[in-house]
Design a protein that fits this description.
With 350 residues, this protein is mainly α. It is built from 16 helices and no strands. The relative contact order is 0.15.
């Protein structure tokens, strides 16, 4: 498993943590400085224990649903692995994804730890690739579709109406990406030819350098692996695959539910506004998928500040972003980091 060592070297992890912590903490510090008032601290002192449990419960629920989704995919491939083992591996992969550009550490981490639990590299890669592909497809389909339908209102609401032209280019890029994914699924042989041609382009070689060929081989092999197992599942367990799609939707929904939980936890009435809040979050998550900074630090805080500013009084806006980021990112990262170390050192069973 040399890929794991290359992708997740200690130096890369330290660099990712430094970047994401520095940018994130500076951004949150600026936001807090600009909008914190005595009313902010008064509101924090009046948060009830049940509200704190509500916010933490939303995070734990997202862990459980995602764990159940991965266990379902593993079971469909005739692999049995304990639910709590899956939870630990998922959290460890969240950590590695959060500290690497474009979440590139997620796949090798999951494959590595599933393999250490006795699953073959091929099956482990299939489990992880199917999981990530369904997640990416939902984002690639849902993000542009919702943005196209609600574009005018959404851009006005988050103060980005002046970027409408740029957003159109993003939509075209997303449409191309989605079409390319479908092409890979339906025509894997021709898709492999296209992948090879793409990696032969001069600007791609210039960017990747000596990593061009290994990266091309990795992409094509994982595409083949994914297509083989997905074909197998659709032929034998089509209804079960549909269930995975439904679980993918609820996994996204549980993650997005953290924001309204924070608002409710601070005593804000968002009755009748929850769908709108979830919609705005999903659109911002779509934009964050294009940000190469680990964890989308800086951009994530500003993006969600635009959401909170439309539904909260000024004195609660920055503190809400801070609480949301602590729960949805830093809590996942630090607990995931603990799981990563325990799994990597083999101490999880002690």
């Amino acid at each position: 498993m040399q890929t794991q060592k290359k992708v997740l070297s200690p130096a890369l992890i330290r660099k990712g943590l430094i970047i994401t912590l520095s940018i994130g903490l500076i951004t949150m510090g600026i936001l807090l400085y600009s909008s914190t008032t005595p009313e902010t601290w008064h509101s924090l002192r009046n948060i009830h224990l049940k509200n704190i449990l509500l916010m933490l419960g939303a995070v734990v629920l997202s862990w459980l649903i995602e764990g159940f989704r991965v266990k379902t995919i593993a079971s469909l491939l005739d692999e049995q692995i304990g639910f709590f083992d899956i939870l630990r591996i998922n959290l460890a992969s969240i950590f590695s994804g959060n500290v690497t550009p474009l979440y590139s550490g997620t796949i090798p981490t999951q494959v590595y730890f599933f393999h250490r639990k006795g699953i073959s590299v091929g099956k482990a890669t299939a489990i992880v690739t199917i999981r990530l592909s369904f997640t990416s497809l939902l984002l690639a389909i849902g993000g542009p579709l919702l943005l196209f339908i609600f574009k005018g209102k959404i851009l006005d609401e988050i103060g980005l109406s002046h970027l409408a032209g740029f957003i159109n280019y993003i939509l075209l890029l997303a449409l191309f990406f989605f079409g390319f994914l479908l092409f890979l699924l339906l025509k894997p042989d021709k898709g492999e030819i296209l992948i090879n041609k793409f990696f032969q382009l001069k600007f791609v070689k210039k960017i990747l350098g000596s990593r061009t060929e290994p990266f091309c081989h990795k992409v094509t092999s994982e595409a083949k692996e994914f297509h083989f197992w997905l074909n197998t599942l659709f032929q034998k367990k089509a209804l079960s695959v549909l269930f995975v799609v439904i679980l993918t939707f609820f996994s996204w929904l549980s993650t997005l539910a953290i924001t309204p939980a924070v608002m409710l936890g601070l005593g804000v009435n968002i009755k009748g506004k929850i769908f709108r809040i979830l919609l705005l979050q999903f659109i911002i998550q779509f934009f964050l998928s294009f940000i190469p900074i680990p964890g989308g630090s800086g951009v994530a805080e500003m993006g969600f500040f635009s959401i909170f500013s439309g539904y909260l009084p000024k004195h609660l806006q920055a503190i809400s972003v801070t609480i949301w980021r602590l729960l949805s990112y830093y809590l996942n990262t630090f607990i995931g980091g603990f799981c990563f170390l325990r799994l990597f050192t083999g101490k999880e069973n002690e």
